[in-house]
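Supplementary Data S3. Sequence and structure tokens for construct A.
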Amino acid sequence: MPSDPLVAEHVLEFPGGYTRTTGPVIGRFLTELRDGRIVGVRTADGLVLVPPLEYDPATGESVTEEYVQVGPAGTVLSWAWVGTPRKGHPLDRPFAWALIKLDGADTSLVHAVDAGTVKGIRPGLRVRPRFKPESDRIGHITDISCFVPEVTTMIAPVRIEYRIQPGRSLARFLEGVRDGIFLAGRCTRCDKVYVPYRTTCPECGSTIGEELELPDTGTVTTFAINNLPDPRAPEVPFVSAYILLDGADVPMIALMGDIPAHEVRQGMRVKAVWLPPEERTLSMTNIKWFAPTGEPDVRL
């Protein structure tokens, strides 16, 4: 019988911690971090290195003693997403490791970006450091808890209440919708059929006197897929479509339902899905949406 594999557990530890001197260049950088500032050092060629180095990586020459405050804001150059943080990571939630080029610097540093979700991080994103409270800073790179995106959007709740009084033609049309009927008007001069019902012809200006009922079936002429939530929509994404009712000469806009958004197409035959009669009011919400009939598509 196979035996269990031998396993030996080891611990490597420096009691009291591994101690090293920082030197004048890195020491200055860490001291400034403790005070809530980020500095770089200038090379003989005028480049600003952040984090600062003691020697110019291009020439090997010692850097100057000129320190330059940079940032604090910067730009993300590249990033890698950490979906499951580990114990030693700077954040206990998903975050990104990113190369950040601070304003005024010629090199970039690596640090954590608290972007919220992977969709919130991208090259070119503007970020700022989030420093630990002053009493918790010790002169270490972790004195910056992380970088966070600059505020570029805000949510402003918008709500307005108003009342409208429909005209005679719209009121008549809504009465029909309440009864499960699409009322249209026919122009006796140019023979165009308009839905919703109206009392004057927009093409020739004639008075429309003839009222007729149209079926609740039609054809999708064009449509748009929407990815923002709408309380009237069956789901997200949803489709709003222009539907040419059978017998009409102009399409009307309505929602599509009972079909995945990506399957809606021009020429699709559809039928209105109504609320139960006892739930209807003088409103277009009596039509939940239009759904496919299963008939062959119409060539437009």
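Construct B, processed identically:
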Amino acid sequence: MQKLHRQGRTGKGPTFKVLVAGGLVLTLGAGCGQRVDAAETKNAAAATQGSAPEAAVKADTVQVGEAKVPRFLTVTGSLTAYEDSDVAAGATGKVVSVHAERGSVVRKGDALVKLDGRVAAASLEEARAQVTLAQSQKQLADADCDRADKLFKEGTSSVAEHDRAQAQCRNAAAQAASAAARLSMLEINVTDTTIRAPFDGVVSERVVSVGEYVRADSKVVTLVALNPLRLSITVPESSAAFIKKDQPVEFTLTAEPNKTHQTKLSFVGAGLRNGTRDLVVEALVPNEKRELMPGQFATARVQLGEQQLPVVPRTAVLGEGSRRKVFVVSDGRLEERIVQVSESAGDSLGVMAGVRPGERVVAVARDDLRDGQKLQ
């Protein structure tokens, strides 16, 4: 048995209908119909919007070419002095004068430090006197030897007397040679009391002061040669076979990232280092104005040769962090592709992966371009 009850109320509120059927109570309100109408309206609006024509983007395109592109290896390194020496005294004595300060520019042979050479000079004079004495004794012994030879040949002297005279001649010659050697050694000692620059350079550190006593192995100054400098770089094992002397190198410094310096490889290591499995190479960098300094960190690019690659304009490549992408035209639409570009000079970039020769790409990539857009 079914009962239908109608209940209503006046005013602005909704009208409810209650239907009782076999114990199940259903409540129907006029508001349900309003929600259904709103949903239908929204769907209709979406359908109308979807049917609007798709907007096309305008962009110039260019065909992917193919050319021989320089192949570069990017490595890190640092600048070092061409020569870096802790200059030793080379003699023993007290420092009487210092002729170089930190930052002093010196030429090879310039006096750096002078030691008290009075004792060395006195010893030198003694050695000269000994040489004179030894030479006189040698001359006398030589004359005795000549007479002994003559008498021995005439048969007026015995073999023992002849042998004794020859031994005296040999002893006198040895003493003269010993005196001459000692004289040479003392001349060197006197010369070493003035410590001179072993090469052109700049004094980076002064170690001694007047009044100090130094030994032969004492360091007096540190001298560095700044023109040229050495660019020392390490090449991984995978690329070591491609490294040759005189290969072009360009590098930038951390302090001047926008300035590129050009040079070429001057020294190539004989083999890989055991611990790091890399090859150490060096390039000489002119530094006449002393604008570069030892210790500066460098990022270098070594040209390893050329390879045939697809090429696109630099403007066609758009960077997103560490990624590079281009927009390829396919069936009238843009296709976004991630590419791997080579490091090359000029207005074009070689592409190692991502595009093929003959394809068309957007000549000037823009941030407003999207994958799948229709091209006008």
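The first helix runs from residue 30 to 50. Residues 1-36, 44-48 have pLDDT under 50 and may be disordered.
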